[in-house]
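Question thread 4412

I'm putting together a teaching handout and wanted feedback from people who do this every day. The idea is simple: show students a protein as raw sequence, then show them the structure tokens that encode its fold, then repeat with a second protein so they can compare. Below is the first pair exactly as I plan to print it.
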Amino acid sequence: MPRSLRPGQSAELYTVDVGTGDRRLVTRSTELLFEAPNWSVDGSHLIVNGDGRLFRIAVDGGGGFDEIDLGGVPPINNDHVLSPDGTTVYVSADDGHLYAVPLAGGSPRRVSNDHGVHHYLHGISPDGSTLAYIGLEDRDGQRIANVWTIPAAGGADTQLTDDEHADDGAEYGPDGKWIYFNSERASTEPGHAQLFRTSVDGRTTEQLTFDERVNWFPHPAPDGSAIAYVSFPPGTLGHPADVADVRIRLLDPDGQFRELATLFGGQGTMNVPSWSPDGNHLAYVAYPL
């Protein structure tokens, strides 16, 4: 079921300058709980989901919510990415499958296969040929989440991680050699997710953050100079909504981070690739009460 706003709550879409930290309110709604902003490839629009649908919003805030025709795709969640050429949006639907939808209109195409997993899309390779997703499956009564890839044109799935640790947020880096994700694999107790990356063949995995906070959804900058991510308070289980002291952070190649924003939010704030094409801004959603 799509999320809805609580009484007295609003959804606020911001862009923030990663150099100065200055933020700007793009739009606000007290009716539609929208989530997960992508940027259009020309930098003129942001794309968000809400109520199982997809919308386009001008970065300057004019024009309101322009609904994108999904061509009969089942209601979608907050995991969607754009193709590098800007012609296609790939979405995760509530039926558990991935779909390719032409942004200019036309019939959607189901990308994913039936292989016992529920698909949550997070990334696309720089050349647009491959999608990275989280496959959620029931295994001996446990819900297991691992990193997978699949050709964007359709084809055989490739599983990159295979363990009982909760993985999420699988997103390609700009060189196409690594897939970044968050995982509980560094801890024996839930509520300690950190950031990792794995080579695209799954043979090498490296941990990137080591602090006491709970770190989710790594988004590498277009030039590889930093990784933006969502940081929850210590001990947070999963990536819940409506959490105080959620922070947007930037991680540099030396492993140092800096705070970019603090907000009330969490789920839906920045689940998908959220960098502007020029790498100067990030987009995120806050949900103040």
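The second pair follows. I'd like the answer to focus on this one:
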Amino acid sequence: MTLDDLRGLIRTIPDFPKPGILFRDVTTLIGHGAGFAAAVGHLAARAEADGAEVIAGIEARGFIFGAAVAARMGLPFVPVRKPGKLPVPVLAIDYALEYGTDTLEVDPGAVPDGARVIVVDDLIATGGTALAAVELLRRAGGEVIGAHFAIDLPELGGAERLRDAGVRVQALLAYEGH
């Protein structure tokens, strides 16, 4: 399937979660077997071209895309979790949200020192969560060489913030507006 075909599988929901927002819903893509397989194939081809050795996914939809990419490539998958989900001592990072803060955690032994890591998630918006994940994976010893997304919302500036942090960013699809 082409990227244009994949675009047709993403549902847009107006005024969610609040008025004026166009929510880009990947659940319709995930629910389409051939479409999801094609999206994973496109992401895996890009990760392979970048020389990925480890795939990391951000909770929750990044687990869906990232684990599938890692499995397709035969690479390790590292989950970047919300607090309190890992049964071992963790590395943690707090990051700012629009209203407050949140935390991400990773198993400190999950990333081999110097491993070339690609972060995978469903969507990049403002970039706060992705930047926190990158920093956390770097603290864990990884060399984060890229961040790959199904969708980019360029007007929100997240991809640019990641590039400013030295991370190569790729997205299968970009949507204007937010």
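Top answer:
Good format. For the second protein you could add a caption like this: Residues 3-174 form a domain with the Rossmann fold fold (CATH 3.40.50.2020). DSSP finds six helices and nine strands in the chain.
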